[in-house]
Amino acid sequence: GESVGLHLPTLSVQEGDNSIINCAYSNSASDYFIWYKQESGKGPQFIIDIRSNMDKRQGQRVTVLLNKTVKHLSLQIAATQPGDSAVYLCGAAGNKLTFGGGTRVLVKP
Amino acid sequence: KAGVTQTPRYLIKTRGQQVTLSCSPISGHRSVSWYQQTPGQGLQFLFEYFSETQRNKGNFPGRFSGRQFSNSRSEMNVSTLELGDSALYLCASSASRGGGTEAFFGQGTRLTVV
Fold first, then answer.
1. Under DSSP, is residue A84 helix (H, G, I), strand (E, B) or coil?
2. Considering only CB atoms, which residues of chain A are within 8 Å of chain B?
3. Of the four, A40, A56, A73, A109, which is 20 to 30 A from B14 by CA?
4. Confidence at residue A4, expressed as pLDDT on a 0 to 100 scale
5. How far does the CA of residue A89 sit from the closest CA of chain B (Å)?
6. Pick from B35, B42, B100: which is nearest to A101 by CB?
7. pLDDT digits (tens, 9 = 90+) for B56-68
8. Residue B100 touches chain A, beta carbons under 8 Å
């Protein structure tokens, strides 16, 4: 079945630096890969997605990279801000949307 | 437009009881997926309903069930509650089957089983 996993449970980053969050997946049949941000006490909020036939997509201050050869997905956040502190979830969408365990990002002032 | 609404926000139940949670999706969305989120297991897929039919199911026991109404609102039910069922239950609404891109989540129902 599908599984999506994360390399690092917690990432501490200095305000203003770039953040890189990594994710591994197992099911090559996923159509989309999606990143969500979940703040304390809230449901996950969509950040950005990428189709399986792409390798890079950019949004506002975020870039998602997809390496299908090694089944790896990453989210890059430029100029990390205190408001970026949250848990980041990667998801794989095929016939259903499944998620990895999450990475907590802590932004230090 | 209004977002995904889950009720209640918080719930405390006793072992052995049953519970029903509700999710109202975004207007026009026909897919509702349910997830259980715990610190140890992360966000786990329970099931998805689309046009009143269950389309997909995760690896949960039969005590977990759900349904969807003609207005796309969905309910999930957990019978014979166990302590391990304590979790944040999230629903996500989407315009397409499978959740797909841009599934919108509600704030969740925090269930505590004592």
1. helix
2. 31-32, 34, 36, 41-46, 49, 89, 93-102
3. A40
4. 52
5. 9
6. B42
7. 999 999 999 999 9
8. yes
